[in-house]
Write a structure and sequence with these properties.
This protein is mainly α. The chain contains 5 helices and no strands.
Length: 138
């Protein structure tokens, strides 16, 4: 029996889509300008990290937190079970990304992007594991 899409499902779609758009835009910006200057990230934040500039983080951001969520959004809209699993992976990936970022460059409260994206990762996971969403996609 296929359940009707609920508010929780639409919220999950919106959050995954927003992550995809922001990951795509951020990743492209870092690839175009690996110094981070285009989006206001000083390259000196990377001192002591394995990266000389933001190129590799930009590629990861573009693919893992940009393209993958956009493809997942299409699956969520069409109702595929794999999209539910992918949504959970995106939530975990986002929390890992923020955690590693904080370890490498420290917590940066201004602007509060780490906090915002951390909360977004938690929301995606809560929605993707909620009973109503799980029932819809299984």
């Amino acid at each position: 029996m296929r359940y009707k899409k609920t508010f929780s499902i639409y919220l999950l779609i919106i959050f995954v889509l927003l992550q995809g758009i922001s990951g795509l835009l951020g990743g492209i910006s870092l690839i175009i300008d690996p110094s981070g200057g285009q989006i206001g990230l000083p390259v000196n934040w990377l001192e002591g990290s394995p990266f000389e500039n933001f190129l590799i983080p930009g590629i990861i951001l573009l693919t893992v937190l940009g393209v993958f969520p956009l493809v997942t959004t299409m699956g969520l809209i069409s109702g595929t079970r794999k999209a539910l699993i992918s949504s959970r992976l995106i939530g975990y990936a986002l929390l890992i990304w923020i955690g590693v970022e904080i370890i490498i460059i420290g917590y940066r409260p201004d602007p509060p992007l780490q906090l915002i994206f951390g909360i977004e990762g938690v929301i995606i996971l809560l929605l993707a594991y909620s009973t109503v969403v799980t029932n819809y996609y299984t």
